[in-house]
Amino acid sequence: MKTSKVSIIGSGFVGSTTAFAIMDAGLVSDIVLVDINREKSEAEAMDLTHGAAFVKTVNITAGLIDDTVNSDLIIITAGIGPKPGETRLDILNKNIPIFKDIVPKLVQFSPNALFLVVSNPVDILTYITYKFSGLPAHRVIGSGTVLDTSRFKSILSKQFEVDARNIHAYIIGEHGDSEIAAWSTIKIAGMGIEEYCKLDKLEFNEEFKEYITDEVKHAAYEIINRKGYTNYAVALAVRRITEAILGDEQSILTVSGLLDGENNLHDVYMAMPCIVGRNGIRKIIPIPLSNDESEKLNHSANILKDIIQKSDINI
Question: What is the rounded distance in angstroms from the CA atom of residue 7 to the CA atom of residue 15?
Answer without folding.
Answer: 10
